[in-house]
Amino acid sequence: MSSLHQRETSLWHPFADMSAVRDEQFCVARAEGVWVYDQQGRRYLDGTAGLWYCNAGHGRTEIVDAVARQMRELDTYFVFNDVTNPPAEQLADRLAGLAPVDDAKIFLTTGGGESVDTAAKLARLYWVHQGRPERTHILSRGNAYHGTNGMGTSIGGIEANQAGFGRLVPDTERVDRDDAESLREAIERIGADRIAAFFAEPVMGAGGLYPPKPGYLEAVAKICAEHDILFVADSVICGFGRVGGWFGVERWGLRPDMITFAKGVTSGYLPLGGVVVGGRVAEPFWRQPGHPFRHGPTYSGHPSVAAAALANLDILEREELPARADALERPLHEGLLSLADHPAVGEVRGGTGLLGAVELAPDVLAADPGAAARLQRAVRDRGVIVRPLAKAVAVSPPLTVAESEIDLLVQALREGLDEV
Ligand code: PLP
Q: Which GO molecular function entries does the Swiss-Prot or TrEMBL record give (predicted)?
């Protein structure tokens, strides 16, 4: 256990049971490529790309240099009202050009949760400006994760993340995770003319790593279009090559009304998120006077953060990393599937980009509901980082990972499974 950092911390870790980690933490001190190093210098394969974000891998001096150059030129400035700056303009143009959305506008935030809240508020306000203020309901899927801000907490489908916070944002409702008919039924029950938007992650991440059932995303997009309900893709995990394509929706031929993004847009080097807003939703705000969107974080359009994103996009493009994720999808999935008949495994999920999960068998989880966290630690002791979810561990390596490193990851999982 020498990799653990023994010291009473003052740092409150998100989502952690601090009573368990306050004296013993895993301290990551350095990173390079697909590897991270603890304070003793021991290395670990970053099988999760941080929190699903480090698509270009660690140690990209090109991003560091671009940020340093930008900081020397214009370290920080805001973009409220009529103020702008060159990197924010360039980034918005570039993202709008890549997005599978008609006449795209780009609203920048500092992360995924803020982007979800931005899109949800925008959806409701759009309908107000259409003279339809009763269109307030926001639908989403069971098991969805849309961040921990107000709207995102309310439309999330992981109940534990809502418990104890009192009354959440009203007029939010979950539908079945996989069944498009459940969305249709909810629309019939609530009434399409009272619904603003439907939010969906293309591949559900934190709620358990569920790729969409064949035809599901196409079906819900069609149902939304039939009922004039805004379709919002939450591509915070799926964007920037993670499932191939730039915005995590291209492989299903989707053209959402809005797309939320974050994480891979900077490969996590600096905090950035945003919303791609289709021309239709933007129209009342951009063309009709007197409709400002009274919403926005201080650091929207931060020039140094935008510089990090531009340098990261250069790398993703030059090294064709979205296509690489496509090419490695099969080796990763086959590697994980080789664990499917292990007695401790209940189900293997994935096969959609560089995302996968190994869910533990029901008897293992019945004997120890914390088995996924135990598996994660057993795998980490073998030099590989995976992410514990409620019943599974998830993997999402940097898009630069080599096939031999995928083999290492699978081998460490196999040995970890033997241990749990
Ligand atoms: N939406 C999805 C699909 C996510 O996976 C996440 C984070 O994992 C978020 C939103 C929230 O993003 P952030 O943690 O940057 O606020």
A: transaminase activity
Per-residue pLDDT of 237-257, as tens digits, reads: 999 999 999 999 999 999 999
Q: Is 191 helix (H, G, I), strand (E, B) or coil?
A: coil
Contact 213, 140 (CB under 8 A): no
Q: What distance in Å separates the CA atoms of residue 85 and residue 354, rounded to the nearest whole number? A: 34
Q: Residue 350 maps to which CATH number?
A: 3.90.1150.10
Report the DSSP pairing between strands 43-46 and 384-385: parallel
Burial class (CB in 10 A: 0-12, 13-18, 19+), 13: exposed
CATH number, domain with residue 280: 3.40.640.10
Q: Are residues 310 and 266 in the same domain?
A: yes
What is the complex's ipTM, to 2 decimals?
A: 0.99
Residue 416 Cα to ligand 1 middle (Å)? 28
Measured from the CB, is residue 111 less than 6 Å from ligand 1?
A: yes
| Structure confidence by residue, pLDDT tens digits, 87-135 | 999 999 999 999 999 999 999 999 999 999 999 999 999 999 999 999 9
Q: Whose CA is nearest to atom 16 of ligand 1?
A: 113
Check if 204 has its Cβ closer than 6 Å to any atom of ligand 1.
no
Domain interval for residue 250: 62-318
